[in-house]
Specification:
The protein is α/β, with parallel strands linked by helices. It has 15 helices and 18 strands.
Length: 535
């Protein structure tokens, strides 16, 4: 980053000290892991609102306030879980959290599944536009589907009906649950494999044993199977073997369009647990700078404030999932960007600075905003979402998540190169990060949107060092207590990334042009319809 560029930013420029301080506070024990609808949320909201006030922006929420209420249904397992697998006359007790992770968003106060047959449904995909149907008309009523994570192309040598190793939404666990509900299954068990899931069992366990959330629905039973969850790969391999099947062979069979579901021998699953359901209200926080010439048009900076709260203590006795990198870094950047924009000339378009809730619960805060925007989506020029900036010092590059086929990716590349840095496309498309961040909720509504995160090419150590640090983080600390601020934290790279985000956001806010989805984007048609409405 050239010194001249940093000097051009108002308010003394982006401060690494400010960024580090915000993360230190938000990720502290006092904030209890920032879980929605907990005392940790109250502290988090109060801190972000106070920080935005001090930054000098105006409230941008509902009724002239700083927040937008997001009503959600919260469901969590209440008490012990009993689960038994029976095959060939032999019963096997399953430990929740170790062998499986079970939960439910169905509108019931108790889940009881008795001797439900297990059926392998491959990747569980129904995609007529790709000529793909894993179900072949099989009736899944009363049955529990066993399904693979990711897409059929993930492990094949050549791209097939999907996008090669670049996962589509069909590969995401959220889609598997949604589709199996449409197919009428009683339950879903996703087979966990670390590489295609892009995270280890510890992450599944941490999220799976936490409360789950959904928007309130009068017909919730249509949207959710009675039972859902994950199973360990080793358990799946053993189950298939006892059913007279080879797990790897069946996986290969599932990678071709001719696949049809297969019963797992006479295997059945029984499971029972109580569910505590209640309605909660969590909040998005929104600050605003009104545009000087086109105040009805909007550019959004966003980051999710939530983490995973308090869970099972680790080996050091720490049970707080602090969420420092994920995603106090993003919130800190949004606050600091608000401060420098407020210190300078007003942009031509209105800027919104959002700290969104319940991203870790399925992008709930962003999804709610997209359905209930405080500024019209058809006049929202772009969303620049920020996730997981690096605590390890400066990088030569900056990255965005997934292949969004959106002009913002080229814009970020151009801005980075203009300031002496490089842009790196997502090096891990198979992880499906495009579908795992809040920008996706805006994209589905047609708004050009990207998530920006740290690159891997460290100034001190290059790509090898950056990749090693990233891999270690995802293996050990992602959604775990060790995602914490320490006195070794180096926020200079975060500051440099925020400088590029300032330049990009300023350009979009002051330009006559509108960012666009490119050919091949699944969101292009939605935006074009909204553009017709705008005009």
């Amino acid at each position: 980053m050239t010194p001249a560029f940093a000097a051009d930013i108002p308010g003394g420029g982006i401060s690494a000290d400010n960024l580090s301080r915000h993360v230190r506070v938000l990720a502290s024990d006092e904030f209890e892991g920032r879980a929605p609808a907990t005392p940790g949320e109250e502290k988090t909201i109060a801190y972000i609102v106070d920080a935005l006030k001090k930054a000098g922006v105006q409230p941008g929420g509902e009724q002239g306030g700083w927040t937008q209420a997001v009503p959600l249904v919260r469901a969590q397992v209440d008490g012990p879980v009993t689960a038994t697998l029976e095959i060939g006359g032999t019963e096997q007790a399953l430990a929740n959290g170790d062998d499986v992770v079970l939960q439910s968003l169905s509108p019931v106060d108790r889940v009881s599944v008795v001797d439900a047959p297990l059926v392998f449904v491959g990747y569980g995909i129904a995609a007529p536009e790709r000529g793909w149907d894993d179900y072949k008309g099989v009736d899944l009523t009363g049955k529990v589907a066993v399904v693979l994570i990711n897409d059929p192309d993930y492990e094949t040598s050549q791209p097939g009906s999907f996008d090669g190793r670049a996962v589509t939404y069909y590969g995401r666990w959220t889609y598997k649950y949604e589709e199996l509900a449409r197919q009428g299954a009683a339950g879903v068990l996703i087979v966990h494999e670390t590489a295609p899931a892009a995270y280890g069992w510890a992450t599944v366990r941490a999220s799976g044993l936490s409360p789950v959330f959904d928007i309130p629905r009068a017909d919730a039973a249509k949207y959710h199977t009675l039972l859902r969850g994950w199973m360990q790969r080793d358990l799946a391999v053993s189950l298939f073997q006892r059913a007279g099947l080879d797990f790897e062979a069946e996986k290969k069979r599932a990678q071709i369009g001719a696949f049809a579901p297969v019963a797992l021998g006479d295997a059945t699953l029984s499971a029972a647990f109580a569910v505590k359901r209640d309605q909660v209200v969590t909040r998005n926080v929104i600050g605003r700078i009104e545009g000087s010439k086109r105040p009805d048009e909007t550019v959004i900076y966003s980051a999710h404030w939530d983490a995973y709260g308090i869970g099972t203590p680790d080996a050091q006795g720490d049970g707080i999932r602090h969420g420092a990198v994920d995603n106090a870094t993003g919130v800190a950047a949004v606050i600091e960007l608000a401060r420098v924009f407020a210190a300078g000339p007003r942009p031509q378009r209105t800027l919104l600075f959002m700290a969104l809730t319940a991203e870790e619960k399925g992008l709930q805060g962003a999804t709610y905003y997209a359905a209930n925007p405080v500024a019209p989506l058809e006049k929202t020029a772009a969303v620049l979402n920020i996730e997981m900036l690096s605590p390890d010092g400066p990088n030569r590059d900056i990255a965005s998540w997934g292949n969004g086929r959106v002009s913002l990716e080229g814009d970020l590349k151009r801005v980075a190169e203009a300031h002496g840095r490089t842009y790196s496309p997502d090096p891990n498309l198979e992880a499906g990060f495009f579908y795992r961040a809040d920008h996706f909720a805006f994209a589905r509504a047609g708004v050009p949107a990207i998530t920006v995160g740290a690159g891997l090419d460290r100034v001190d150590g290059g790509v090898a060092s950056g990749k090693a640090l990233r891999d270690a983080y995802f293996a050990k600390c992602y959604h775990q207590p060790c995602d914490a601020w320490t006195d070794t934290w180096n926020a200079t790279g975060q500051a440099q990334d925020a400088e590029l985000l300032y330049a990009l956001g300023r350009e979009i806010a002051d330009s006559d042009a509108w960012p666009r989805w490119l050919n091949g984007s699944e969101f292009k048609a939605t935006r074009e319809r909204s553009e017709t409405e705008r005009e």
